[in-house]
Amino acid sequence: MGNIHNLSLIRQCFSYFSDEKISFPIADYRVPKLTVMKCTKLIMTSQLAKWESYRQISRALRTSETLQESLELTSISASQISRKLPEIPTEWLESLFLDIMGKVKLLLPTATSKIGAVRIIDSTCIKLPANLAEWAHVNRTHTQIKIHVRVLALPTGQTLPEKAIPSTGNVSDVETVDLLVEDDSTIYVMDRGYIKYKQFDAWLKREVRFVNRINENNGVWHVEQELPIPSNTKITRDAIVRLGSAFRRTKQTLRLVEFRDEKDRKYRLVTSCFDLSATEIADIYRQRWLIELFFKWMKQHLRLVKLYSYEPQGVWNQIFLALITYAIAMHIQLSSGTSLSLWDVLQSVRNCWEKNLSIFEAELHRKPSRSSRGRQKVPKVQKSPPKLHTSVGIIKPRKTEGK
Questions:
Q1: Is residue 174 packed enough to be buried (19+ CB in 10 Å), middle (13-18) or exposed (0-12)?
Q2: Which CATH number does the domain 112-294 belong to among 3.40.1280.10, 2.40.50.140, 3.90.350.10, 3.30.360.10?
């Protein structure tokens, strides 16, 4: 956080947008009030505050002197915001997101485990109203878009989003995977949506390290070697194989690892990591669940379920503005040294966005009023129904067990 404590928190958040050398001559041509930069900051504020509509954004601007001073804008209509959001250059928002995430990475510990960095790739769907987004029509029952995302799994259990590709819902995961996988020492973890034998061969040729779950119907064409199964583990098979059938198969050998989880569900993984143990490969795949938690967090805490705009570029822009908000919250969490979770930091931002930085920083480092021993087990005692001090309402005692 900054050192100027008399500044408002929202103005500090705006400092992530270095706007001195940025201009948008086409989008801002003959625009007297709502420029691209001001609209971006306004929508980002709405993500932080979780405002529900253009009208609420317009109302918040009219009633907030702090926001007016920070934006140098006293009022704007909901319709003007609606028209401006799709005009923001999406490439600039993507670049801004990557820039803030680069600053976040500088604050992360450099130490990694012996297996190296683990990156997870997956996609999530967002439904759109069929009558407002015909361009996203998939079939008779689905009108939706997808967000294809790559995240870095952190030792703390958090995820750091590194890349996002929005698309219509009819774009398969396989079609975007080449844009998300890079030739480095990273281990890429993917689910069953990324099964493609030609892709596996290409990755093996490029020495890309990956762990990919496959289906039961993905057969084994040839077994080159059965490897010993470690004892006292959930591993059921470890083999060097070629996948496929007489019609379609891999040209190169892969490692096949099969294991069962705590609920006895079977998992089949193929990987290019021949140097790791089968147990390590199973543990790496278990980290895939982190990206599901990331998607859930974004949809619950940022405005990614009910969108402001249903125009394609308006939707893309709101996705990247949500990711920018996530990046800012994570940067605040790491740079401040607070012990609060990312969700608690975002809640504190929402409560203090108009207040001075000193108030917000005190909230980030507030000590509990009393120490807690945690939740204690209390023996269950049959309680009598509470007494009512009014003649209104009825409380009927529940029946006790065994009677």
A1: middle
A2: 3.90.350.10
